[in-house]
Structure formats: structure tokens, C-alpha cells
Design brief:
two-stranded antiparallel ribbon; 2 domains; alpha+beta
């Protein structure tokens, strides 16, 4: 019996039981659609995280004081440590070999006031290199100058969220005087909007001031909360970290046996950690969705068993007129594969549609990749072969005489 006849017989058997065949396909359809949708959401989230981190500066390096133990063994916050100083910052600027920009970072929370409008936020003291490190751009006005830093000038650069809350009438904020905890500050520039990142943080809720101004006029402290830097290239990040580590250990007079009293983290490290976490979550979701594929496969096996039982006499008659065991095996196996593959094709359409629907309605980032669709199709084909083999093998092993006598 040739392959064409086997396909025709299998197709006729499916057509004779349309509703039963569709219900059998339903498990495969749901399984494939679920796997494609979950993988699309997971992959889209990973790409969004990478994109947001790249926008923040993929080669950014963050240097913070190390944690320490206070009186009684209580762990002190890194913000309370005083192991980073302006001397450290200056030495990093002067001695580094692999950094494109360096900036001190100090911050304080409080309330901004302009006229009858107020907004609770925080101000961040930085140098002009901070714009390069965080990939920020001035939309109107200008960045405060080195002279402003040296004189601890009361000037600031603000983000769009600050402008929207303090100047709802649409007035030009550049040149206006606002107050932060009763300290007057002149707005000299407005940053270009960057929107929200993947973690839901508003990147436009930002106020930048000269670090000297925040240290002297707001915090009244001489130490730094952190130092941000940017490697010349992303590939030089590890070299830059090693270089900064050497400089700081020399500044702090640490012996070879002493632990670092500071910590250094890179965006690349954070990105790897977050994408790794997202990959695990995506895999978990795909496995959960894949359970429905197994359920669908069991449904195929069950229906094929029923089909073999119903058509036992037909099988006996085919064998009695010369059909071989391999022909009967192929007939039922092709039927199982057709059900599985058809369900898989419909499931792929539903999966792509569901992914686009999630993007449209929920606004979640999605990424439908060819390999996920191909993998889903391959899995549903294997499912049809795996779960259809045993019933088909049982049909092929039937004794023709016993099969004809079957009632």
C-alpha cells in the first residue's frame, strides 16, 4: 500500500469523526499556543531589560562603600559608610586607563516647591560626566559648569516629570527658581525624556545638582555615597574594574590580606543576573505550558486506542486481503501525526495572535522568534509520533482472524 493511499485513508478517518478529532487537537492547540505565548513574553522581557540597561549605560560601573559592622555587631548600611572620599574620586579620574567618564554621586530626599506646586522627590549631586555615564541628554538650557561645581552653586538640571509637576501650565522652567527643603535653586537645563524602564522606574523623575552643592548645602558631609564611571567600551569593563580596584586599594592603604572596603558592580553583571533570572522564569512558564502538550498527547493516544478498537474488523479485513503489519502501523501513525500537526499549526496561529493581543492590551514587551515557533512545531510532531506509536503498533500486531471475528 503506497503512501498516498495511507494518507487518504487517514484523512477519511479524521473526516468521519470531525468533532472527536477537533477535541483531540484541542489539547495540542492550547499547548502550542501557550508555549509560544510564554516564550514570546519571556523573550520580550529579556530584550526589554537589556535595552533599558543599555540606555542607562551598558558599560556603567558603580562603586559603593563596603558594608561594615557597627557597635554590637550591627550591620551598617553602605550609605552610612565613609570609605569613599573626594580624594578617591580625583585619583580615579587622574590615574585610570580604561574609563571614559567618572562622577561622584550623593543624593538626598525632600520636597521641591515652585509657587503653589510641590513634588516629593530626591536630588542627586553629580559632575558633568554623569550625563555621559547615564547617556542623558539636555533638551533645553545647558548642563551646570565646572565653575558651578567649584563654587557649590545653587543650580540644577531637571527631568520631564519634575517639569510636569512643578510647571503644569507649560511655562519654560529654564531660568526659574525652585526650592528644595527651603534651599533656592535655579533651573539651568531640562533633560530629554527617557520614560519608564522595565522595572517600572520613572527615569524622568530626576534632579541633578553639582555634587559639591549637595554635600555642603544639603547633606553637610565630606564623604561620597558612591562613584559612577563608564568604561571606554563594554569589552573593557572588566579591565576598568580591576584598574579602579587597584587605585582604591592603594588609596585606602589595604594590605594584600585585607578585604576591599568598597564594592564594585557593573551594568553587564546586573544585566547577566537579570536575564539569567528571566530565562529561568521563561523556562518555568514554558514547562508549565508544555504540560498541556503532554495532556494533548495523552488525548491522542486515548483516541487512537478507541479508533483501533472501533476499527478492529476493518483492520482484520485489510490484513486478510494482503495489508502488511507495517501498512496498518503506518496508517494509524499517519492519522495520529496529522491530528497532532494540524493542531500544532492552528496552535501556532493562536500563539502568535495571543502574543500580539498581550502586547496590544497589556502593553507587555513580546518577541516572537522563529526558533520558538519551529520548536513548538517540532514538539507537537514528536508528540504525535510518540503517543500514536503504541496504539498503531497494537493495531499492526492484531491477528487477522481474531480481528475479523471481533464484535
Amino acid at each position: 500500500m503506497n503512501a498516498t493511499n495511507l494518507f487518504k485513508i487517514a484523512l477519511k478517518a479524521i473526516a468521519n469523526n470531525k468533532m472527536r478529532s477537533f477535541l483531540t487537537m484541542l489539547g495540542i492547540i492550547i499547548g502550542v499556543a501557550s508555549v509560544i505565548t510564554m516564550l514570546a513574553i519571556g523573550q520580550g522581557s529579556k530584550e526589554q531589560i537589556k535595552q533599558n540597561i543599555a540606555e542607562m549605560g551598558s558599560n556603567m560601573i558603580m562603586i559603593r562603600p563596603g558594608e561594615d559592622r557597627g557597635p554590637g555587631g550591627a550591620r551598617m548600611s553602605a550609605d552610612d559608610m565613609q570609605s569613599l572620599t573626594l580624594t578617591d574620586y580625583e585619583n580615579i579620574v587622574n590615574q585610570n586607563k580604561y574609563l571614559a567618564a567618572v562622577s561622584p554621586v550623593v543624593s538626598s530626599g525632600g520636597q521641591l516647591i515652585y509657587g503653589n506646586n510641590n513634588y516629593q522627590t530626591s536630588v542627586t549631586g553629580v559632575s558633568d560626566g554623569y550625563l555621559t555615564i547615564r547617556q542623558l541628554k539636555i533638551e533645553s538650557g545647558e548642563m551646570f559648569s565646572e565653575a558651578d561645581i567649584k563654587s557649590s552653586a545653587k543650580v540644577c538640571v531637571v527631568g520631564k516629570t519634575i517639569v510636569d509637576n512643578l510647571f503644569p501650565s507649560g511655562a519654560d522652567p529654564v531660568g526659574q527658581i525652585i526650592r528644595f527643603n527651603k534651599i533656592p535653586m535655579k533651573i539651568v537645563g531640562v533633560l530629554k525624556s527617557k520614560g519608564y524602564n522595565s522595572m517600572g522606574m520613572d527615569q524622568d523623575d530626576i534632579v541633578l545638582m553639582p555634587y559639591t552643592t549637595v554635600m555642603k548645602r544639603i547633606l553637610a558631609q565630606t564623604y561620597l555615597q558612591s562613584i559612577y564611571a563608564s568604561a571606554l567600551t563594554e569589552g573593557m569593563t572588566d579591565l576598568a574594574i580591576a584598574d579602579v580596584t587597584t587605585i582604591l586599594r592603594a588609596d585606602h592603604r589595604l594590605r594584600d590580606t585585607d578585604d576591599d572596603d568598597f564594592s564594585i558592580r557593573s551594568q553587564e553583571e546586573i544585566s547577566s543576573m537579570m536575564t539569567s533570572t528571566m530565562s529561568m522564569l521563561t523556562l518555568l512558564l514554558a514547562c508549565v505550558a508544555g504540560i498541556s502538550l503532554v495532556v494533548g498527547g495523552i488525548g491522542i493516544m486515548n483516541i487512537m486506542y478507541v479508533s483501533v478498537t472501533e476499527r478492529t474488523r476493518e483492520i482484520g479485513l485489510r490484513m486478510s486481503v494482503g495489508a502488511r503489519g507495517i501498512d496498518i502501523l503506518s496508517q494509524f501513525l499517519i492519522e495520529a501525526i496529522m491530528i497532532s500537526v494540524t493542531g500544532g499549526l492552528i496552535g501556532m496561529l493562536f500563539g502568535v495572535g495571543a502574543s500580539l493581543l498581550v502586547k496590544t492590551l497589556a502593553g507587555w514587551p513580546i518577541s516572537i522568534q522563529a526558533w520558538t515557533v519551529a520548536l513548538s512545531f517540532l514538539v507537537c510532531t514528536i508528540t504525535g509520533v510518540f503517543f500514536g506509536w503504541y496504539p498503531a503498533k497494537k493495531a499492526a500486531n492484531l491477528d487477522p482472524i481474531e480481528a475479523i471475528r471481533y464484535e
